[in-house]
Structures are given as C-alpha cells and as structure tokens.
Design a protein that fits this description.
Largest sheet: 8 strands, parallel, barrel
Strand order of the largest sheet: 2-3-4-5-6-8-11-14
Number of helices: 17
Strand content: 5-15%
Helix content: 40-55%
CATH topology: TIM Barrel
Number of strands: 17
CATH architecture: Alpha-Beta Barrel
Distance between the termini: 29 Å
Radius of gyration: 22 Å
CATH superfamily: Glycosidases
Number of domains: 1
Structural class: alpha/beta
CATH class: Alpha Beta
Shape: globular
Amino acid sequence: MSENPRAFAPGFLFGAATAAYQIEGAAFEDGRTASIWDTFSREPGAVLHGDNGDVACDHYHRYPADVALMKELGLDTYRFSVSWARVRPDGGAVNQKGLDFYKRLVDELRAADILPWLTLYHWDLPQAIEDRGGWTVRSTAEQFTEYALSVHDALGDRVQNWTTLNEPWCSSFLSYTAGIHAPGRTSVTDGVLAAHHLLLGHGQTVRELRARDASLDLGITLNLTVAEPVDPAVPGDVDAARRIDGQFNRWFLDPIFRGAYPTDVVEDIRAVSPAAIAALDEATLPGDLEAIATPLDALGVNYYHGEFVGGSPDPHAPASGDAPTTREITSPFPSHERIFWHDRGLPRTNMNWEVDPAGLTTLLERVWREYAQPAGTVLYVTENGASYDDVVDASGSDAADGSGAAARRVHDVERTAFLRAHLGAIRDAQDAGVDVRGYFYWSLMDNFEWAWGYGKRFGIVHVDYDTQERTLKDSALEYRRVIAARAIDVAPASPVGEAAAAQR
C-alpha cells in the first residue's frame, strides 16, 4: 500500500457476484427442470462449442468450499441469484428441495459472516413459461411475483438485501429482439413487451415484499453505460449517442424513477416499428407505471465499458463483442440505423470491450444526480469485471499443503489493473459526492459465459472445468489485500467529477 492510500468509508461493502445458471450445474437434479438457457444452449450454433450449464462450476455440490474461498478473500458480501427453474420448476408448485439448497447456501454464508445479497432473476426463466409466451405476456410478471414470494417464504428471515432483476435490458432486447441470448427471438415488438413485463414484475414484487416486511432492503440491478458522441459538434454523432443512451439507459431508468417511458425513445422506436409501440400501449394498463415506479432502497449499477458512437462509419471500427454464431441475429437496439461504433484507442479486454474506468465515475455521477439522489436511493456497483486470456502457471514452488505439487498461479496482470482502476473510479465518484456503498466484482469465479460458453473467463478465481479445481488468481490476491486495508492506492483522477466528464 502506498503512503497515501484512499480509504473507503466504514460500512462500504466489498463483494463478488455470480449467477445460478452460470455456476450451479446440477441442471436436472432434485426436481429442477429446464430453463430457457438449458433449451437455448442445445440449439445448434447458439452457444460457442455447444457448451451448456449442466455442470458449470458444480457449485450446487461444492458451495461449502466456495463459501470458504469467499471467507479467505475477506468478502463482506456475496451476490448470487436463485434459479426460478429450481424453486418452481416449470413455473408450477414450489420445489422444497430447490428451496432447501438456497437455505443451506445462505446459512453457510451467514456462518462465515458474509452478507447474502439475493437476486431473484438472472435470466433463467423456466422453459415451460416461455412456451406460454415468456416475458412477452402479462401472466409471466404475475408468476414472477408468486415465485419471488415463495423465495421470501423460505429466506425472508435470513436475507436482508433483495434484488428483483439483473439487467432487464439483456433479458428483453438482447434476448427477444437481437436473438443473441435465450430464448433467441428476433422481434422488436417482443423486446418492447418483454421489457415492460419485466419491469412490471419488478414493481409488483417490490410492493409485495415491502408490504410483508418494511425493513427489507429492496432494489434492482441495471446494466448501464456512458454513450459519448465522436464529435459533440456533429448533430449525427450527438443523435447516435442520444439514441444509445435512450434505449440502453433511460428506457429502464425513466419508468423506475419517473414513472414514464422516455418520450424521445418511444418516438424513435415508433419510427421503425409502429406495431411495437402500439403493442406497448395496449399492454400498459392503468396502474402499471405507478407499480414500476415503486420507490427503491438501492439501485445496482453494472458497468463494463462505455459506448463511443457516431452517425457515420469508422473505417477502423472495433470488432463486435458478440460470440460468433451461425444463427440469425440482429441489433438489440430497435432504432439502430445510422449508429456506428468508433475506436478511441483505449485498451480492450478479450471481449473487445473498452477499458474505461473514468466512465464509471461519470456514470455514477450522472445516475446519482439525475435519478437516485432525488429519490433517496443509494447506489451499489453490483457488477464490474474483465475477461482476459488467463494462463495457469504450475511452475512455482511447492504447494503450501506440503503435497509436493507445484503451486498453481494465474498472473492476470491486466485484470488486477482493471480491478484497481475501477475501485479508484468509485472513490473518485465518492469524492464528488455520490453515495455509492459497495462494489461486487464480476465474477467470483470463471463460469459459463452465456453465448460464449466456457470460452471467456471473468473470474478472480480460476476454475479448471475438467477437475473443478479452484485457484486464486493474482487479481484475487490483490482484492484480498485491498479488502483487508479497506483502502486503494490509486491516485484520484484529475480533474475529478463533472469537470472530468466534460473533458471526455
């Protein structure tokens, strides 16, 4: 640690995050039935190498050891999701064996003095519900609320922090409009309807949980970005950035915090798909937007990279970060014509995503000032991480257990730098007055990375998928050091805050 470390306030939470389908495995054990990802991963070309989550990290059977790893790292909190397909298979009756798994997991966390942070939906909709229309129909929002209350019946006395949805942009537009994620539909109308019913399910669930127990901490997690024009003086570039911000950020922030969909984005979508907006108007019943805007205690911000866009093509345009596929896919943005991504020379991860820590500061300031602060909602960075081409080094000294085996190390220099820089960006936001109270690295361990299968590694813990051996990467060792010190030795950005944003 440097001579002048920047301390985090007492009570700031250091955590890590995972999702059920990505790590649990045990896909068809103890009553669990197929989710849309079980089905989608078996569709030819949908997932790289035909990978699936049947085994994944085998967390279902290995959770005690995984919790012990969390304790070794010094984590204050662990964000995990519950599998709807495990708790209420096919969307039907409660499966007690499924609930019992989460009881055991939560009890293990509490025994290790790790705060459980529960997410109710991280994309694994029961396939049977999708067969009845999925998120495009209103009944799914109702079923989601029923499922959520079933989880609360089992865990309400053990869990204080509840998140309804993870990244509804992904489970609507990326999934129902772009076809990139399960269930793989390619319809603007379906994406718009899915987004509305996801938000409706969120709002209804917050209302019901708060009515049961006013002391719960309730929130939602959104993936958000900073959309910047290539040239702020060029109208086409400015409009491209406005439309990305509108379709990615404001389509969800505005109804949650302001009780209305953004008018400009409604008109953007109407211009390309009048049927989609007509369907949204028909689906939005009296009281829906009021339910969606039910006040929240916490907003989770997931940030990975920014968007640098213009109204004309870049001859050196960056490659897409989407997994290669032979399937028909399209843009997740209904209004995507005359939007082009440009390269600004920043380093990139092996997902081809920009590494832009300053963007996190800018984003947190904007969301705090325009949305969270007026509503009395605090912020958490609930996902932030990077995938790189990790290499296991087994040439080190003997393992500490005296087995004579070579010590395994993963010298992930780039991820370690990424982690440090983004923790520094959070401190910059705090210095600018933003009330951000925690950070969850994505992910605790390497896992099934959706359409990329096992081809991308985000974890600070390496997983050998053949043996299920876990190895702390150098990034994990650095995170452990930061948590122990409760401070980061990263110099403040200069200048800090809105002035910095203005110079970007």
